[in-house]
Design goal:
With 684 residues, the chain is mainly alpha-helical. The protein has four domains: 182 residues, Arc Repressor Mutant, subunit A; 96 residues, Tetratricopeptide repeat domain (Serine Threonine Protein Phosphatase 5, Tetratricopeptide repeat, Alpha Horseshoe); 139 residues, Tetratricopeptide repeat domain (Serine Threonine Protein Phosphatase 5, Tetratricopeptide repeat), CATH 1.25.40.10; 182 residues. It is 62% helix and 3% strand. It contains 30 helices and seven strands. The strands form two sheets. A four-stranded mixed beta sheet has the order 3-2-1-7. The protein has a three-stranded antiparallel beta sheet with strand order 4-6-5. A hairpin with a 5-residue loop joins β1 and β2. The longest helix is centred in the N-terminal third of the chain and has 27 residues. The chain is globular and about 95 Å long.
């Protein structure tokens, strides 16, 4: 959008004017005091002119049916008052930049107007793909606050109101058409049914309703709607249906799958799978390979799709092995090149079965097997071994990376780098190395159109940069990951970006251990992020994560695990963390919970806490190693366990320059703070 002078669009101007409802203006995000109805009408009339100059004489005629004496003086008073309202910071005797004087009249410049933006969105949607058109039109329709130019009854305002109301109906119909083409035909039927009842003379509404019914598999209902439309048009208006309505009726009668234009995604899916069932013989190996490709897509949907994909993947690999063809098994295993952004497996048992099958296949392959095939199997071993102690995972990752680079296949290299990232946890303090891997993934994937791995690269960088305290850079990568996730329908990305938002607030916000309300706000942020885990299908991430996040925050600020005595503001908002499902983190949480009980007078709990500290194992290699070592070390200091304190100090030393936030989802604060506490304790 630009003004009539061809100048730049007003998208960044601080002045906004709204006429899709009562006439309103905002200057510097504050609502402007526009004065009475006639004064508002001046601004509205200039909006209706769409940036063109309106002469003072024309404005007077459009404001009054019978202009009074002194109308021009009154007009100038209105203009002056409007200028003060919408440009409150303009210095005296400086030219107006929004409501400008131009020759014999006035015009609007450098202003955002909701009606202008709405018209541009409706016009632009004609040439957009269905998803983009729907998004743009939904945003545009959301700017309506009521009838356009509400409260103004001058003839020009009534005409503009009618024109914009008609355009709004066009937008509503184009949204319905976009949704139908996106496979949501059944969902739009109720809205379209109401639309044709309210606006029975709109042929396009009838056409879209019939189309949505037909695309929903309701051919008889679609034909009935077309019959009603024909009868209404002929009986009430004496006209035959237009060509688009008539064409749709003919297409529905002959069962045309392309009725109404390009078939939607559901139609294509239905027709393709039907053809596959007919043509590809039952038991054909092609079905097994196709199934694995489908499972790869299913895994990226999250929720039940991810759960089903994990289980059926193992079944597919088992079916391939039964055929005794290592090449086929390698293809079936390698086709599921789904990376992971979390270092704890969602199902360790199933992962172990995949690793075992990949190892058997590697051993059975002939010597002349291409490097890319072996690299994908080794990368699979690395990815599915994540979070496990021992050398095999890192070793397989190194081998996969070397073979992938030699193969020259960018997709194979991306998968190998994903395995390298998931096993780069031989000790703490490796955030810089993981950030380098993430950076290579982003660059490689962006060059070769590998969206899944580009998203992973951004998430890896979010995690690593969080550990390095580079919050602005981490936020940029979180934003990039989120945008890619939306574009490529990867809903699980939103889980990680939501948790990063909570982490950033907890790490850089007000909570300092002295402000209970601020700390409560940080904990509420974690709880809100935890809501995104519901139904995500990632138990490896979900189990125990929320209480661990809150405990790490409290330990960082040297507060009891149960939050301590609640202030009036906290009462009822921060339940204690006892009797909580800690999942795999129970060994590191238990000492702190027992110490909290001891602080409330339970003497036996102190002794139990000391025993619990002695039983703390080494954390598994992964994104939470630093946090878990912090919990172990702080508990050791609290109970006076020098042996555990020394273990924690040695383990954390390589991460001295990092923040215990490398997971990108929770934090225990700067590692150096905890090392200082451990060193002071051991020196005492």
């Amino acid at each position: 959008m630009s003004d009539r002078s061809g100048g730049p669009a007003a998208a960044q101007a601080p002045v906004r004017v709204g006429v899709l409802g009562p006439v309103t203006a905002w200057a510097d995000d504050a609502e402007a005091a526009l004065g009475g109805p006639r004064q508002r009408a001046v601004l509205a009339r200039l909006v209706a002119a769409r940036g063109r100059v309106v002469t003072a004489g024309r404005l007077v005629e459009d404001l009054w049916d019978e202009p009074p004496q002194g109308a021009l003086v009154a007009l100038r008073t209105f203009v002056a008052a409007l200028r003060r309202a919408i440009e409150p910071g303009r210095a005296a005797r400086t030219p107006a930049r929004v409501l400008v004087t131009d020759g014999p009249g006035y015009a609007l410049r450098q202003v955002d107007v909701d009606a202008w933006a709405f018209e541009a969105a409706v016009s632009g949607a004609r040439d957009q793909a269905p998803a983009a058109a729907r998004a743009a039109l939904d945003r545009a329709l959301g700017t309506w606050r009521g009838a356009a130019y509400a409260g103004l009854e001058q003839p020009w305002a009534v005409a503009e109101r009618g024109r914009l109301a008609e355009l709004r109906l066009v937008a509503v119909e184009r949204v319905a058409e976009a949704r139908t083409n996106l496979g949501e035909a059944a969902d739009v039927v109720p809205d379209l049914d109401a639309h044709v009842i309210e606006h029975p003379w709109r042929e396009e509404g009838w056409r879209l309703l019939a189309l949505a019914l037909y695309r929903s598999g309701r051919q008889a209902d679609a034909l009935e709607v077309l019959r009603r439309a024909r009868a209404m048009l002929a009986g009430e208006l004496g006209v035959d249906p237009g060509p688009r309505l008539a064409e749709l009726e003919a297409q529905v009668l002959r069962h045309d799958p392309g009725a109404g234009g390009t078939p939607g995604a559901d139609d294509v899916w239905r027709d393709t799978t039907s053809a596959y069932e007919r043509v590809v013989a039952a038991g054909a190996r092609a079905r097994l390979e196709s199934t694995t490709t489908l499972l790869r897509t299913l895994a990226m949907t999250g929720g039940d799709g991810l759960t089903a994909a994990r289980t059926q993947r193992v079944a597919a690999v088992g079916a391939a092995e039964q055929l005794g063809d290592p090449d086929l098994t390698a293809r079936v295993i390698g086709a599921f090149d789904v990376p992971g952004a979390w270092t704890r497996s969602d199902d360790a048992g199933l992962a172990a079965q995949v690793v075992a099958a990949a190892e058997r296949t590697l051993a059975a392959l002939p010597d002349d097997t291409p490097d890319a095939v072996r690299a994908k199997l080794l990368a699979t071993v690395a990815v599915e071994s994540r979070g496990l102690a021992g050398p095999r995972g890192p070793q397989a990752a190194h081998q996969a990376e070397a073979l992938a680079r030699r193969s020259g296949d960018p997709a194979v290299l991306a998968f190998a780098l994903a395995g390298r990232y998931l096993t780069r946890f031989e000790h703490t303090g490796l955030a810089l190395e993981r950030d380098a891997t993430g950076a290579e993934l982003v660059s490689l994937a962006a060059r070769h159109g590998l969206a899944t791995f580009e998203i992973l690269g951004h998430l890896v960088r979010v995690q690593a940069l969080s550990a390095l305290g580079r919050w602005s850079d981490a936020q940029r990568h979180a934003d990039d990951a989120g945008a890619l996730g939306l574009r490529h329908e990867r809903p699980l990305v939103g889980v990680f970006t939501a948790w990063f938002g909570a982490l950033r607030a907890a790490a850089s916000g007000a909570p300092d251990g002295k402000d209970p309300a601020a700390r409560a706000g940080a904990e509420r942020g974690y709880r809100a992020a935890a809501a995104t885990l519901d139904g995500a299908g990632m138990p490896g991430l979900t189990e125990g994560l929320l209480p661990l996040a809150i405990l790490a925050l409290r330990v960082w600020h040297e507060l009891p695990a149960d939050g301590g005595p609640a202030s009036p503001r906290e009462a009822g908002a921060l339940p204690t963390l006892d009797d909580t499902d800690w999942g795999p983190y129970e060994p590191w949480a238990r000492p702190h919970l027992l110490l909290a009980r001891g602080a409330h007078g339970d003497a036996a709990a102190i002794a139990a806490a000391a025993q619990a500290v002695r039983r703390i194992p080494d954390p598994p290699p992964g994104l939470l190693a630093e946090v878990l070592w912090v919990l172990a070390g702080r508990a050791a200091v609290a109970v006076g366990d020098r042996r555990m304190a020394e273990r924690a100090r040695v383990a954390l030393a390589p991460a001295a320059g990092e923040i215990a936030a490398g997971s990108g989802v929770l934090t225990a604060g700067p590692v150096q703070d905890h090392l200082d506490a451990l060193t002071a304790f051991l020196a005492g």
